[in-house]
Amino acid sequence: MRRLPSFFALRAFEAAARLGGFRQAGDELHLTPSAISHQVRALETWFGRALFLREVRKVTLTADGQRLLDRLSPAFDQIEDACAELGPVESRSELAVHCSPSFASTWLGPRLPQFMAAHPSIVIRLSSSAEPVDLSKATDIDVDIAYGPPPTRHNVIVEPLGLEPTVPMCSPRLLEGGRLRTPNDLLRFTLIDSKVNPVRWADWCKLNGLQLPAGARPSFDRGSMAIAAAADGMGIALETTRFAEQEIERGELVILEGKSFRRIAQVMHFLCYRKTITDNEKLMAFRSWMQAQLSSDN
After folding, report:
1. In terms of CB atoms within 10 Å, which of 99, 173, 180, 268 comes out highest?
2. Are 100 and 161 in contact (CB under 8 A)?
């Protein structure tokens, strides 16, 4: 059993010490100054020492009172933070969004200023990691944009975010020696592996009637890094066009395609959120905005 004084007495003392008076503490805690004084007296009795020097119209902390305040205020801050994290989502002004690093840096990040302009009252707290998130346990996250196989979680809604073409692309400098006319022409160049993409070079070669050459290839564990390597002229990357929008628009990358080329397109990103928060206005606003952005991309 913890040996602690009354929590209400501790709360009254902390408010009075932080705000500089019993009246101010009473205003914050919706109590009379007399009730605050009574709680503080009870706390002083429990400790067996004075915590305040009482003067006309003001109170001043003793050395012991200051020492207690220095330890107590951070503890109350931690309690407040813990309660805010576990409290109803509607009570928070934030919307916590998690997604993969490449999606965050290449697609979502550049578009977030538009969302913020359209919804100034919603504060986005964005986090990213390559590891999948279990929303049934990660209660501090409201929305997860999952990458790869669709997650299956109890009480979690999973919505596909549209088909994404995964295509070979490279720097136009790589083609200065001549145009690539057939899929077989790609095999003359260095092929860059994007390790996290579910579509691999072996899949693309099989679809296009080719035998993937044996041997090691440069590889990256982030789609955005594979895209950057291709833009720098290292070789040909096989990646989703969703990660390469800016490079393609700026002319730093070109898509290798033609009549004899066959594309692979599949759903690779999913919007995930708990069924228990489907009435959350911030979440629904973000979901609608995402759908509009994806529609404009097509």
Report:
1. 268
2. no
Residues 44 and 33: their CA atoms lie apart, in Å, by: 16
| Residues 278 and 260 both lie in one domain | no
Distance between start and end Cα atoms, the chain: 62
Same domain assignment for residues 134 and 15 = no
Pairing outcome for strands 143-147 and 269-274: antiparallel
CB 82: neighbour CB atoms within 10 A?
Answer: 10
Is the distance from CB of 135 to CB of 156 less than 8 angstroms? yes
In a domain, 1, yes or no: no
CATH number at residue 194: 3.40.190.10
Pair type for strands 143-147 and 94-99: parallel
pLDDT tens digit string along 18-47? Answer: 888 888 888 888 888 888 888 899 889 989
- Answer whether residue 123 is part of any domain: yes
Can you read off the two tokens belonging to residue 277? 């928060």
Which helix (H) or strand (E) is 61 found in, with range? Answer: strand 58-61
Query: Considering its fold, how many domains does the chain have in total?
Result: 3
Query: Are 244 and 168 contacting, i.e. CB atoms less than 8 angstroms apart?
Result: no
